[in-house]
Amino acid sequence: MIGFESDEAILHKLRARLRRMTDEELIKFGKDVRKLAENPFQRQLEEARAEWKRRRKKRSEHSS
Description:
Distance between the termini: 73 Å
Helix content: over 70%
Strand content: under 5%
Oligomer: single chain
Number of helices: 3
Radius of gyration: 22 Å
């Protein structure tokens, strides 16, 4: 028989695990999870927007 845990049970276990971590372990865990959760396309989109803004600013400086 295969058992599945509810989201609430999984969250409860995660919270218990986080409470047992040292500060250093908690910081490392947070950084590791952030890397896993990061959407690589979001970073590319942000860079494209920054480039667009840079170009528009450059154009407005030249047209003044």
